[in-house]
Amino acid sequence: MVKEIEKSGMPIVQMANLIPVSKTAGANKIIPTISIPYPLGDPGTSKEEQWKLRYHRVGVALDALATDVKEQTVFKVKF
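Structure for Glycine reductase complex protein B subunit gamma, as requested:
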């Protein structure tokens, strides 16, 4: 799906926790997430910590949208 959307000229970032699957699917801009049931959060942490984590990941995704890449790129995030 990612490749088809990009073919239309719309930039896209895939946020995923299974990076090898995203690479195999052909995603060009990949943001690592936390886990399958909670991709952008960790229910074992406080709401403040979850907010910081989400804010950071979405910020990285927005930066990735504005970045021109020539090959598949996995963007760095804080864990």
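The helical segments are 2-7, 19-25, 47-65.
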